[in-house]
Amino acid sequence: MRLSAIRAKLTAICGSRAVLHSKEDLLLYEYDAGLARARPDFVVFPSTTEQVAAVVALASESGLPVVARGAGTGLSGGAIPRSGGIVLAFARMNRILEVDVANQRAVVQPGVVNLELSEHVRPLGFYFAPDPSSQKACTIGGNVAENSGGPHTLASGVTVNHVTGLEVVLADGRIVELGGKSSEAAGYDLTGFFVGSEGTLGITTKIMVKLTRVPEHVSTLLAIYNDVRDAGNTVVEITSAGITPAALEMMDGWTLRAVEAAAHAGYPQDAAAVLLIELEGLRETVDEQVLAVEAACARQNAREVRIAQNDAERQRLWYGRKNAFAAIGRISPSYYTQDGVIPRTRIPQTLEHIQQVAARYSLTIGNVFHAGDGNLHPLILFDDRSPAETEKSIQAGKEILQYCISVGGSLTGEHGVGIEKRDLMPMLFSDEELQVMRRLREALNPRGTLNPEKLIPGARTCMEIRTPQFPGVVS
Amino acid sequence: MPSATEPVTPPQLDELYRTCVHCGLCLQACPTYRELGLEMDSPRGRIRQVMLVETGQLDLGPGVVEHLDRCLACRACETACPSGVRYGEIIESARARIEQQYRRPLPARVARRIGYRIIADFKLLAHAATLLRFYQRSGARRLAQSSGILRLFRLQQTESLAPQIEDDFFFRELGNSFPAEGARRARVAFLAGCIASVAFAELNRATIRVLQKNGVEVWVPEAQGCCGALHVHAGLQAEAQQLARQNIHAMLASDVDAIVTNAAGCGTTLKEYGALLAADPAFAARAGEFAARVRDVNEFLAALGARPPARTLAARVTYQDPCHLAHGQRVRSAPRELLRLIAPNFVEMPRADSCCGSAGIYNIAQNELSMQILDTKMNDVAATQAEILATANVGCMLQLRAGIARRGLNIQVRHVMELLDDACRGA
Amino acid sequence: MIAAEHKLHAAPAEVATPAGESEAAEILRECSRFKTAVVPCGSGLHQHIGLAPQPPFVALKSERLTQVEYYDPGDLTIGVGAGMTLRELDALVKPHGQWLPVLAFPDRASGGNATIGGLLATAMHGPLKHAFGGVREFCIGVRFVTGDGMRAKGGGRVVKNVAGYDLMKLLIGSYGTLGVITSASFKLFPRPRQTATFVCRFPGLQNAMAVRDALMASPLAPLALEIISPGAAALLHGHADDAGWRVLLRASGSDQQLARYRDHLGNAASAELTGEDEAAAWSLLENFESALPPDAVVVAVSCPLSDVAQVLRSAERAALERKISWAGIGRACTGSLLIAFLGGSRPEQSISAVHALRASAPPSANAVIRRCPDSLKAGIALWQLREGELEIMRTFKNALDPAWILNRGRYFV
To answer: Is the dihedral of CA A204, A426, A349, A352 positive or negative?
Structure first.
């Protein structure tokens, strides 16, 4: 089918105001918050599940890739149309369909912004627990695709722990309901399996999520260290003491100074590291834990422990953390955010290794991360105008991930594999293990039209299917 | 009148847009993105378009200009941006380039020029406003429709958006001084404002009375003109620089503690005179000094310590942040502090710092989208169940009144200074 | 106290006990080639669930897969072979003040015999699901062998990981139909240092539900909250002197924290259990299913929170109308209920009660038959699966077990 014929069909499905096809418009959908770039042939804005189904079916018939896009805040290129095709933009499917307080559930369309759901249900005493740093912009559909985490997932879990049901459009355009409002369902846990599948198994059109009760009491502490190793050891000390903080975040000295310049959160400028520790729950529980955490910090040579005295102080401590990545933009024109995971007992030695990598490549690398679950975010600064430096930073990132894996970790904790880490998957999985994943993908995505070239390396992709039909449109 | 010259120098755009790391955290802060859901109509997307044009990857054609035109320049994205991207400067530079390099369709071009000429010149403005008043009072539509200002206010479509032209223009106060009541705590130069002078003369008088009551002597410099905000936003750089020079000349006196305005949009522009004239060796230093002394009247009074007024208001009051105050000047708490002095029934409005869609002449130039943004805003206004909607900028007041009329709500829109004046006078 | 293991329903033609993953893979490759049915088997605790695979079949036992792959208490993670039992795992982590919150008393309940493979395959859970969720929430890695002998892996050793498909989710609750689990990794939790259990008794279900609703509206976060029907209480305690409903609430924390629960419950709590009494009460509950008479028909109902009362009432009515007794317990705050119809010598009455329960329960509820006389299984849908989901399940089954040898019949006829 020719592109013009496809355009006519897309227009017939969604209306002319919901289809973008001009070069100047498509150029605006070739990026997200990561490094990958590729231009779609069409951007379509469906407003109903049926429209999504019709578009997906059309794509399947014509062998055209389909890539879903929420707000484009992803860091692994999940929304980048690597082989062109149709970007399904969910900006117009952004309604909160139902809030069911009695069952502690909400039903939302994929384009609902993460923070807006929390704000919507907060007057009722609830919130949506997964809180990626991009929560004021990212969509819940994107959270589902990537199985997003966030600072507060240490105690409350990542997206998959908060999704009980999905409505999904399969590759052939079938609409299927998975799970429901119950906490479990008979049969395979398809809901759980679809979350984090990065749009390679189906397109989510409706999401049933758990709502979490706003805790009675929250206490936020900032522990300041002169030695980054002491901060790392505190993490183990706290969890070994039987305390699971709601959040346990770490920033190294370099990042602190960068964030402070941008966010004025009141962080110390001369420290080697800080821990941001949040405790929540019953007032009595939190009060006891604050004392225990303070003691743990002191045992690990914390120079000072500050406790936020009110909500404004708490917000200020978090403001710097939540805006840390992008605040680096003030310092460096480009940066590469890595997302490795290590067992939390390995934090001190891993940070040391990262600095060795930085020295070897003559790069600046800052660290701001979810220390409680060992989810590192090394920020590698480079100048994207220099191809050599870009390559160098990607190599350094790869070396860091290799180290994470060597100490028993993983190559992504919450950003997803996408295109960014697809070719690194063999560091973690054998050919056979990848082949099993490929089989599962092909079972539901037989023509490879759903988010091709993502997640699993070296598979048959839709590039091969469509290249002869659309030469030259793949950027 | 001094004539407009060429702009002194274009800002270094590439250094500005390269600070954007395209994280997307600005998207939901942008009223046009929230309404349209299009990346092209988001701050990140607009920066991208500017970059693509600058690097020759995209032509400066109608497809790009459309989206840059749709920007409210509310700068809510700057508040949301963690990287400190100076979006306001990017969009202004881009608009300057559009003015220089892009040929709009003829009718649009003519209308824009006439409109900006008129507000740049107080005499022309008074004349045009007289015509408008005549139109409003006599219904002499044909006469009025041929006037440039009519197109500026797009009366044929949105009559309710036009300011009610007052009987007594503020221009006659130019050159006057108003003494402080009691011991003098400060002396300020007051910016009359262009639209304010014809449509909000009473607001200006109220502002002066409030200042006087608080021990402030107010001087209204005679040779002042329009602040140049609309010209800057529209990319008319040279005209804006000329107006800045005129105002610095007229208002910057050594015995003035502050240069005060009650219009948030004007305040932001006045505070940016330093940057506007940075490349002009003859004016750079004085422009910097001028900018440093500019205060929004709310900011000025809160810092001075407003005297508790004679009485308080029983009504439920909420507050809409003017973009140029909250995002442009980062003044958020001052007007709220003043309101809490007089309104014990103050309630916060959700998304109070999201633009109402007024945005200078946006509600005229982008009427349909502006009304869409306004209607969304009215949902939040209605949810507060307030009887008085306070704000601190005349443009916002006009827009909000139009929104309330469209929705059939029974809510008064008042400037914070008017409410303070009522409270001081025991009205 | 520990009940005898349930046996396989029929004698296997062959028993294979692989020593590791590659042996298991070899066996499955061969079985696949000859389309020989395979029944993965741990301790055999759950073999009665679903339709029994027809002989001849090979029993693939995990009894030699009992290795500890790693355990670093500082990380609160552990990796073990699929043949290790919950009881053995508990003994490993207990000295470090940690636990795997599936069973609170694996040393007492027969469920403690369950293997890690069985735990995952059946998505087994008990009262602790209230606070910790099901095993899907804390299984962080799994290794398994597909039907045709491919060695597969999902997740890893770290608590946060989105590299590749979440195969843990796919395998959990798949009843051995997709692969044979060889090892798994878990997130562990700090073991509570002090606990207390509050016993509330009510004349009617309505009062019990009111207590649940008040608790859910409060900031309190107990370890477990279990509702117990009058029949279940009689069965557990061996006498029927108390006809009322019960709610058992177990909380942990310091004296001050426990005081909050005491204050909240006020008069509603009639007794407070600690130490041995508390352990006894909860292990009875954890043992509920195996303590039921052999002819009981047991259904696991999962429903939204607001439907819990209606499901329990439906069960009560179904039993009353058939003049049989019934017993129900469950997690009133997660909507996971276990309901047993005790038809005695008239098991068809129990089956008829299940039909009635399914018909009168809200449509959002799902009732899976866990136990039922083999002779009656053919006449009733054991799983309530929706066609759309079933189709996807078949697709995945084809992908991982192309010869359909694994637990043939368990889910799919």
So the answer is: negative
Same domain, C140 and C70: yes
How many CA atoms are closer than 13 Å to the CA of A68, on its beta-carbon side?
A: 33
Averaged pLDDT for residues B194-209: 83
Distance of CA A439 to the CA centre of its chain: 25
Residue C387 lies in a domain: yes
Among C76, C136, C336, select the one facing A192 at the smallest CB separation.
C136
pLDDT at residue B366, rounded to an integer: 85
**Are residues C120 and C19 located together in one domain of the fold?**
yes
For domain B13-101, say whether CATH 1.10.1060.10 is its number. Answer: yes
**Contact across the interface for B22 and A33, Cβ inside 8 Å:** yes
Query: What is the enclosing helix (H) or strand (E) of A209?
Result: strand A203-210
C377 and C392 within one domain: no
Contacts of A383 (CB under 8 A, 6+ apart): A332, A333, A334, A389, A390
Residue A2 lies inside a defined structural domain of this protein: no
Q: Do C165 and A197 touch (CB under 8 A)?
A: yes
Domain identity same for A248 and A337: no
Same domain membership, residue A186 and residue A100: yes
List C-alpha distances in Å: B123 to B126, B194, C406.
Answer: 5, 10, 91
pLDDT (0 to 100) of residue C246:
95
Quickly state the pLDDT bin for A197 (edges 50, 70, 90).
very high
Give the model's pLDDT for residue A475. 26
Banded model confidence at residue A13, pLDDT cuts 50, 70, 90:
very high
- Asked whether the beta carbons of residue A111 and residue B84 sit closer than 8 angstroms, the reply is no
Interface partners of chain C (CB pairs < 8 Å, 3 or more) are A
Q: Does A466 score more than 60 pLDDT?
A: no
Which residues in chain C are closer than 8 Å to A343, comparing Cβ atoms? Answer: 72, 75, 77, 157-158
Please give the mean pLDDT across all residues of chain A. Answer: 91
d(CA C131, CA B29): 37
Other beta carbons within 10 angstroms of residue C242's beta carbon come to: 12
Give the domain extent around C7.
1-190+383-413
Chain A residues touching B45 at Cβ < 8 A: 28
Q: What is the CATH number of the domain that holds A295?
A: 3.30.70.2190
Point out the residue among A182, A343, A439 whose CB comes nearest to the CB of C364. A182
Residue range B145-162, pLDDT digits in tens: 444 444 444 444 444 555
State how many domains chain A has.
3
Structure tokens, B233:
């936003």
Mean pLDDT over all residues of chain B? 84
Give the pLDDT confidence of A382-428 residue by residue, as tens digits.
Answer: 887 888 988 899 999 999 999 999 999 999 999 999 999 999 999 99
Average pLDDT, stretch C112-136?
A: 97
- Indicate the pTM of the whole model: 0.91
Which of C228, C245, C275 is the endpoint of a domain? C275
Q: How confident is the model at residue B168 (pLDDT cuts 50, 70, 90)?
A: low
Question: Nearest by CB to B58, which of A27, A73, A136?
Answer: A27
**Which chain A residue shows the shortest CA-CA distance from C393?**
A188
Instruction: Please name the helix (run of DSSP H) or strand (run of DSSP E) that holds residue B116, with its range, or none.
Output: helix B106-120
C38 with C185, same domain: the answer is yes
Q: Which of A34-48, A319-333, A454-468 has the lowest average pLDDT?
A: A454-468
Residue pair B240/B212 in contact by the 8 Å Cβ criterion? no
Say whether residue C412 is in contact with chain A using an 8 A CB cutoff.
no
Is A444 touching B (CB cutoff 8 A)? Answer: no
Give every CB contact of residue C210 below 8 A, 6+ residues apart in sequence: none
| A188/C389 touch (CB, cutoff 8 Å), yes or no | yes
CATH dotted code for B310-425:
3.40.50
Report the CATH number at residue C207: 3.30.70.2190
Task: Return the half-sphere exposure (C-beta side, CA atoms, 13 A cut-off) of residue A434.
Answer: 18
Same domain, C161 and C73: yes
